[in-house]
């Protein structure tokens, strides 16, 4: 079913859009009396009283591909779609690098008022 809807213009060129020609056809639903109080004829009457807007046929979804299947996009780089920013620091700059115990004690010297760090530093530096 082709849908042909008119769009309202602006100002003096505006038109009523509630009178568009694309309406869903009225359909009789059989077996409605078994479902409750509404019969198929009542549903048919309701549909003709307030015409429903037509809907387009939904587009088919792409088929589901197995995870182990070969790629379907051979010309696309492997990093396509990855959230990658070249200005972001690399992982090696984020992970702390190993530091020797002597370097750690040397940095602690300026904050230690007990003299223990200085004693350890002198013992290890010999």
Give the helix/strand layout.
Blueprint: H1 40-49, H2 91-94, H3 101-108, H4 116-124
Helix pairs in contact: 3-4
Question: Could you explain how this protein is built, in words?
Answer:
The protein is mostly helical. Among the domains are: 19-59, no CATH class; 94-124, no CATH class. It has helices at 40-49, 91-94, 101-108, 116-124. The termini are far apart.
Low-confidence stretches: none
Rg from Cα: 37 Å
Percentage beta strand: under 5%
- Which structural class best describes the helix and strand composition? mainly alpha
- Report the span from N to C terminus: 92 Å
Series of H and E elements: HHHH
What is the gist of this entry?
The chain is an all-alpha fold and 126 residues long. It is built from four helices and no strands.
Main attributes of the structure:
4 helices; 126 residues; mainly alpha; 25% helix
